[in-house]
Model the fold of this input.
Amino acid sequence: MTGPSVPRIFSRRRVGSRILRQNARASAGATQQFIWQDICEDTAERLEFVRHEPKRPLVLGMCHDPLRAMLDNCDGDMWDGADWTIEEPFPAADYDFIGVVGLLDAVNDLPGALIHIRNALVPGGLAVASFIGGASLPRLRAAMLTADGDRPAARIHPMVDPRAVPQLLQRAGWKDPVVDTRSLTVRYSSLDQLVSDLRDHGLTSALANAGPALGKAALDRARAAFREQADPDGKTAETFEIITLTGRRTLAGT
Done:
């Protein structure tokens, strides 16, 4: 008897492509990865608060200071995620800390990914995973709906509701699971500036069945709709919700 199949919402190829593009833009030195920087700062603060000093850490995603500086002297791994998927079992299972920067926003089997993270920890090991949540990008969503008119297309992929996550962590066997959220507000002078930031972060759509590309007229409508949501100074405030999951593997290794 086989279990239920996992719905294919995201394309693995497109997920890999957006990571490769993110890395290429970062190598060019002209990117704005403020979300990943914020997550790395927050993760480093959490490690200091719980006095967890990793000896064998793993970081998945873009690792910035101060988290990188904190872990540089450890015997660990840092993977950007381009040549591997978090939905597969980890090659090793001997990490005392796993940090995930992004990545979990575009997985087809989130419960399975959480189980793989737990299984890759040594008994008592700590995991901290942060990613973009369901309350993100309300202004962009509204602009895309305006652009498509009476025939809305799938352009922004569904995101995780933080209220559903505690149960997922319990199902995945995380010990002492904690879920918290915070928001980053960024003000943009144009829709194009927002899209550029999304590309810098590898946060463009990775849908398996994405809608058709916007034509010129639709793109003009989207730009106008985004401007119409602006504050009196002409800048539009966009929101990024960050969900952070924290938990351990039991001392018994289960």
Notes: The mean pLDDT is 90. Residues 12-27 form the longest helix (16 residues). DSSP finds eight helices and six strands in the chain. The first strand starts at residue 57 and ends at 60.
